Amino acid sequence: MGNLERPWRSRYWSRRLLVAFCVFIIGCFAGTYEIDLKMPATRPSQDEQYMCHGVKVQEPAYITEFIPIAQVSRVHHLIVFSCSKNFEPPSEVWGCESLVCGYEQPGILYAWARNAPSLKLPQSVGVPIGGNSSIDYLVLQMHYNLQFIGNVVDYSGVTLKVTTNSPLFLAGVYLLAADASQSIPPKKAEFALNMSCLYEEDAIIHPFAYRTHAHALGRIITGYQYRENTFNLIGKGNPQWPQWFYPAKENVSIAKGDIIVAQCIFDSTSRDTVTTIGAHGLNEMCNFYFYYFVSAKHGSVISKLKYCQEAGDNSIFGKYPADARIPLPRNELFEKEAAMIHDRFGVSFATDWLTGNVKLGQISGITMDNNGNLVVFHRADRSWTELSFDDKNKYRLSDEGPIRTPVVAVISSQGTIVTQWGEGLFYLPHGIFVDKNNHLWVTDVAMHQVFSFDWNKKGNKPLVVLGNAMKPGNDAKSFCKPAGVAVAPDGSSVFVADGYCNSRVVKFTYDGSFVKSFDMSSQSGTMGQQLGRMDIVHDVTLNNEKREVLVADRENGRIVVFNFNGTLIRVISNKYISGAVYGVTYCESANVVFVLTGPPASGAKSESRVFVLEASTYRLLYSFRPESNIPFDFTHSIASGGKCDEVFVSLLNPYVLLKATIKAAGPPAPHPTYPPEIVSSSGSSMNIRAFAENNFYATLLVGSVGIFAVVVVMLFSWVGCRVIRRRHEESDRSKHPLLKNPTWKKGFQPLMTDDIDGVDYTSDDSEDREDLLYSNKMNTGSDL
Q: Where does the Copper type II ascorbate-dependent monooxygenase N-terminal domain start and stop, copy by copy (predicted)?
């Protein structure tokens, strides 16, 4: 009987271990989500303006990561404050240079400046919000030091990664700052401001990250724990570097009776007058922040420990370490990334930038060539009207023949005509693209065809012809009013936006061989039905860095993203992007995506705008349009040139080609590769150190890791045995998504959205979400 029972017992315990393991993993990841704390289409009305926007915390949770969505070109700095239940925002956006949370003292959760990257808290550490935490509102304070040029609105802010799981340790921020009574005399090569405060709480706190902040005169900022004539360094920073949270020095604990001290060194040799401490750019600041963690049972410390603004104790600073006045070594990477942009950010439009006798008809498409010229596809003396097609989408005016004058105009950035071409070839031009080989690709909605030409050979004979002339269709060999075309940089694939009737994307090889077509209905499962059919696929562009196809789903007012193999990745739908999406173009130099909106076919009122998205995350950065004296209603196509600081927009009525220049434009918030000796606190190496107030917490933490490791080993051993025993069987019958994707994340990482069941893909009104995102990582097919 013993031998007979052994397999049954093995299966019994294996299943129990598997269930326990799955419960453990699901418990770690359940309740993980994001909160987008961003300015709601904000436009500063003056220089040196502080503006706030707040959101109410809906449930008890813990912040585990802060991801900035900001650029130094638009924002001087931002701070995330916490406010209590007694606070009520006065409006959606309010001025807040002095009063952030009304008349109560706010807490600080996060601060950003000078293109600093994100901050990820150590594993098993979280910032408590909601519930019993005393934090009922999150308030984003934005300092716009310069008013924008033109009609620009900003969406800068912070994405908070949040979990409802209770961590072992809670985190808070302590700020030592010089108050407004202090000042810096002129012509001093080295002038110090000092702060110190006594720590009087019973709980031991452990600093794990620090941040320094000053303006132009700041050179060195240091913070120490002082105990029994001994200084223990928490952190030393150069405020002219990216102002993010750097890892604190190891093994620093602050206990009752310790003194926390900080010092700022300024160089005022460039100033002829006294510089005061204040909020504006020409004032100075002396701030040393540090993040600390404390055991969860002593979490009440966080609501008490916020600020220190007391002038430094002279008896202590007479013994301050001499190293505190030695500058950190030069770091060109940091200095380059953190360089402040002193030019005013904004967008200016030009309507009269074309020179000479440039005559353009109804402009249907624009793109850039490899020489930085704008290539315009227009309809000369012909236009698309309600009489152009019959009810079967056939062109009624084919007897008139092709347009007899040139319909392609190459225009330099100075507005002069370089060349014109295309007479006698096209009936009703629409989309245009120039690939890396300088081959011209165009679509003609009347002919229902796509063509490729080699400009280098100066001929009218196409290299590739796709579709059947004058015959609409929806199979592998035909189109119906194809609207746009884009080619992969390596020439591996051609993608056609098809278009006005079929609402699909068709993929070809570079020589014109059909590969596949894809749309919402071609997706696996029910996801396509949940997201709904695309309504006029009006434009297509390629995100070359991510190898993704971005489709302008015009009448649905959204951008649909596929991979190069046609698998749906996500849908970008934003409450600020209203109306119809006419154009979308990726600009590699700044890694941004420009989205052009216009009036929907329904006639609903909508303001046409250009929206700028960060291409790596598709998060909204800012948007713009001309002032009211420039027509911008009937927008149709968009292109970007230069260093993504020139944007061209065509209008169907009137026949206008606008040039927008983005001033002081910079790349999105950078994520530089820092030297190995400076490890980001957002890196995985920033784990909880062997700090605890009693052996119970240390044992619990180490024990949890040990149990987890044992469970993992046993699980994989069991899986290995099962695979060996069942290698001749058909397959594993288990359908659990955790078994399909065994790549576990450590700590409180965001839950991968492999399983889409129960997710609402139709709502775009969530206050806590910027985009409507779908990520299908279960598909492992080739992305070619």
A: 37-145
Q: Is cis: bond before 223, omega within 30 of 0?
A: no
Q: How many CB atoms lie within 10 A of CB 388?
A: 16
To the nearest 10°, the Cα dihedral for 12, 17, 18, 19?
90
Summarize pLDDT for 703-714 with one digit per residue, the tens.
444 444 444 444
Q: Which amino acid is at 659?
A: K
Binding site per annotation, positions: 76-77, 143, 213, 215, 285
CB contact burial 739-771 (16+ within 10 A = b; e otherwise):
eeeeeeeebbbebbeeebeeeebeebeeeebbb
> Please, are residues 536 and 553 in contact by the beta-carbon 8 Å criterion?
yes
Q: How far apart are CA 763 and CA 760, in angstroms?
A: 6
Two tokens, residue 169: 């340790």
CB 264 within 8 A of CB 196: no
Which residue, among 581, 597, 418, 393, has the nearest Cα to 502 in the 3D structure? Answer: 393
- Give the chain's end-to-end CA distance (angstroms, integer): 57
**24 conformational bin, left if phi > 0, alpha if psi -120 to 50, beta if neither:** alpha
Whether the CB-CB separation of 223 and 210 falls below 8 Å is answered with: yes
Q: Distance between CA atoms of 645 and 657, rounded to whole angstroms?
A: 16
Instruction: Report pLDDT digits (tens) over 717-763.
Output: 444 444 333 333 333 322 222 223 333 223 322 222 222 233 233 33
What b-and-e string marks burial along 324-345, b requiring 16 or more CB atoms within 10 Å of the CB?
Answer: beeeeeebeebeebbeebeeeb
Q: Are 516 and 560 within 8 A, CB to CB?
A: no
Rounded Cα distance between 165 and 124, Å, is 10
Distance (Å, whole) CA 67 – CA 80: 11
- Distance separating alpha carbons of residues 276 and 194, to the nearest angstrom: 15
Distance CA 780, CA 88 (A): 48
Instruction: Say what the pLDDT of residue 758 is.
Output: 30
Nearest residue to 444 via CA among 391, 405, 480, 404: 480
Beta bridge partners of 527: none
For residue 162, what are the CA distances in angstroms to 125, 170, 179, 449? 11, 13, 33, 49
The Cα–Cα gap between 80 and 69 comes to: 13
Q: Are 590 and 665 in contact (CB under 8 A)?
A: yes
Count of residues in the chain: 784
> Which residues belong to the annotated binding site for Cu(2+)?
76-77, 143, 213, 215, 285
Helix axes 695-725, 2-29, angle to 10 degrees: 120
With CA atoms as reference, report the closest residue to 748 among 82, 61, 18: 61
Backbone angles phi, psi at 218, to 5 degrees: -65, 135
Closest by alpha carbon to 707, among 64, 28, 10, 208? 28
Q: Distance of alpha carbon 496 from its chain centroid, rounded?
A: 27
How far is CA 114 from its chain centroid? 17
**Tokens 């971005």 — which residue?**
550
Calculate the dihedral angle through the C-alpha atoms of 510, 516, 519, 520, rounding to the nearest 10 degrees: -140
Q: Identify the segments of the chain with pLDDT beneath 70.
A: 1-30, 337-342, 458, 528, 665-784
Domains of the chain: 2-29+692-740 (no CATH), 33-167 (2.60.120.310), 174-341 (2.60.120.230), 346-663 (2.120.10.30)
pTM of the model: 0.79
Dist. CA 572–CA 57, nearest whole Å: 25
Spatial CA neighbour of 217 closest among 183, 249, 250, 251: 183
One-character DSSP codes across 53-69:
EEEE--S-EEEEEEEEE
Closest C-alpha among 605, 588, 607 to residue 596: 607
Q: Which residues fall within 8 angstroms of residue 46, CB to CB, at 6 or more apart?
A: 147
Q: Is 534 exposed, middle or buried (0-12, 13-18, 19+ CB in 10 A)?
A: buried
